[in-house]
Amino acid sequence: MSNGRGFDADVILSGGGLVGQTLALALDQAGVSVIVIDASKPADTLAPAFDGRAFAIAFASYRMWRALGMGDELDQVAQPIEQIMVTDGRLGAAARKGGASLLHLHFDRSELHDHDEPLGLMLEARHVRMALDNAVKARPSIKMIQPMSVSAIERDPAGVTATLADGGKYRAPLLVGADGRRSFVRPAMGIRTIGWDYPVTAIVATIQHEKPHDAVAHEFFLPNGPFAILPLKGERSNIVWAEPRAAADALLKMPEADFLAELRLRFGDFLGALKLEGPRFGYPLSLQLAERMIDQRVALAGDSAHGIHPLAGQGLNLGLKDCAALAECVADGMGLGLDAGDVSILERYQRWRRFDNVTMALGMEFFDKLFSNDITPLRAARGLGLAAVNAVGPARRFFMKYAGGGAGDLPKLLRGESLAA
């Protein structure tokens, strides 16, 4: 698709992280010209110690990355999730048995007979960043400008001009803010947020263990917050461990032997001896929702539009859904002769994504409040709730399909289809 007169590209992306690069690849595949402005240095973001997280990627999100040409590289490092155990536990009690509490929820991939995909795939952040970087470099039509940030935005009825920190200017019919929770684009456009900080920090670390994890992901709801054991390639797992801020700070500073002793109280011994692999990371948690995802010639995607509780690992998946929907809306609109920032394109995008994002954010908030306490009546009610859902096959299968991103009106990329004309 050709650029209009006076435009440097069809779309300018502010932010070239996981969501920004995915969106750039999707737009480029559809023939939409893209300029990406990103403040980070590749040498920093691609360093192994930059990001200790691992992502639970829904099978629909993984389909998109495959459709965008990243499958061969990611398949080498992705760990399929075959089962998920969700348990309401107390310190040490459930973990010692590997999630064998009577009041639990068990998801098993073998129950989903309509597709041959796993429940999800675990991918270490460093591998995802490298695969995205390689995929973008393989498409020279994507113009990456980094390290550089957008310092001013001017709009008129025909387009938007982004002024960069070095004084450079670029103009396009559409600007997308994919610049994270601390977005420059969102407040510059007068888009407010609602939300709050959680009084907890998520401790993230990679653990080596003696016994195989058998591709099972565990989520324990402990009184202080969720504790997840997520399988990685080999005899390794990524832990996401929520604790009150002060306790988390102390745990992050502890000598390794003391940290492992505390970890075993929660992790248990069902995977044998434990050992830390690499550093520990701490991520303060918060909820942040933009009041809208669009404005005149501007759209938000990913964490700039919605930052949610990491419970169930859906945050990045929501951002990837944004990418698939926005790229399809732009491609379809431009195919009809509209420019990329036309209001009908942006309104379609917001209608497609807003409800799902808000529903997921509030759903995670509800589950966190329900499970992260030790109140006896609530413990009894939620335990029975888990057991009830676990006993009803159709309910279990619905939750598995929803968590895998396979429910609802899916964009083409999330169905594994290319946007190439």
General description of the model:
By secondary structure, the chain is of the alpha+beta class. The chain folds into two domains: 11-76 and 124-195 and 287-370 and 408-415, FAD/NAD(P)-binding domain (3-Layer(bba) Sandwich); 80-121 and 198-285, D-Amino Acid Oxidase, Chain A, domain 2 (2-Layer Sandwich), CATH 3.30.9.10. It contains twelve helices and 20 strands. It has helices at residues 18-29, 42-45, 59-67, 71-75, 125-137, 185-188, 245-253, 256-267, 315-335, 343-371, 376-391, 393-403, and strands at residues 11-14, 34-37, 54-58, 79-81, 83-88, 104-108, 120-124, 143-145, 150-156, 159-164, 169-172, 174-177, 193-209, 216-222, 225-232, 236-244, 274-290, 294-295, 298-300, 306-307. An eight-stranded mixed beta sheet has the order 6-5-14-15-16-13-17-20. A six-stranded mixed beta sheet has the order 8-2-1-12-19-18. The protein starts with 10 loop residues before the first strand and ends in an 18-residue tail after the last helix. The model is unreliable at 93-102 and 392-400 (pLDDT under 50).
